[in-house]
Amino acid sequence: MKLLLLGDRECPFLWDYYRPGALSDYDIILSSGDLKPEYLSFVVTMARAPLLYVHGNHDSSYKKFPPEGCDCIEDKLVICKGLRILGLGGCPKYSGGPHQYSERQMRRRIRKLRRKIRRAGGVDIVLTHAPAAGYGDGTDYAHRGFECFAELMDEYKPRYFIHSHVHLNYGHDIPRILTKDDTTIINAYERFDLEI
């Protein structure tokens, strides 16, 4: 199964310089936030795959103009093509804008999903916007990660934890892929192909 991961920056290859058929190989598309709704609508239209997304901290326009043809999985556990995917968008509070949460608020969101996770027998992919604290987060206040995301990985051991928020062009030493025990952590900045 081939997944396309998107986040934070529109990929020129899939947007400005799109070639017919460029998206035909993907089974699922996951957006970790901060992308134009028009871009996601375009991608899902050109692909033959479902597009699932969570909100980034800059996705305030989604309220009036949500991406057409895409499914928001914010605070949900969905099963798509046999994969159990958990969606938790937003980032830690830093300016009071939309889709920003305190550590306590994010813990509460996770707690509300515990029964669904147990009922599903676990989770394969956690899709977030912010990273986990200590695993690909930034050193500045606005790009720190959530501690409860690391705890979520400890408890449920998902195969993949996918985030964005920390742009890879912020520095040359920002890792694209990390691991935490049995979980592969992927920064989905712009575009990443994942084969499962």
In short:
The protein is α/β, with parallel strands linked by helices and 196 residues long. It has helices at 37-46, 103-120, 147-156, and strands spanning 2-6, 28-31, 51-53, 71-72, 76-80, 83-88, 91-92, 100-101, 125-128, 160-163, 177-180, 183-187, 192-195.
Write a structural description.
The longest helix is centred in the middle third of the chain and has 18 residues, at 103-120. The chain is built from three helices and 13 strands. Helices cover 19% and strands 26% of the residues. The chain starts with a strand and ends with a strand. By secondary structure, it is α/β, with parallel strands linked by helices. The protein has one domain (2-195): Purple Acid Phosphatase, chain A, domain 2, CATH 3.60.21.10. Helix 1 links the parallel strand 2 and strand 3.
List keywords for this structure.
196 residues; 19% helix; Purple Acid Phosphatase, chain A, domain 2; 26% strand; alpha/beta; globular; 3 helices; 6-stranded mixed sheet; 5-stranded mixed sheet
| Class of secondary structure makeup | alpha/beta
Radius of gyration: 15 Å
Biggest sheet: strands side by side, in what order?
A: 5-6-9-10-12-11
* Number of structural units classed as domains: 1
Binned, the helix content reads 10-25%
Principal-axes shape call? globular
CATH architectural designation:
4-Layer Sandwich
- Strand composition percent: 25-35%
Number of strands: 13
Kindly report the average pLDDT value.
95
Distance separating the two termini: 5 Å
Q: What is the count of DSSP helices, taking H or I runs of 4+ residues?
A: 3
CATH superfamily: Metallo-dependent phosphatases
Name of the CATH class: Alpha Beta
Q: In terms of per-residue confidence, which ranges show pLDDT below 50 for 5 or more consecutive residues?
A: none
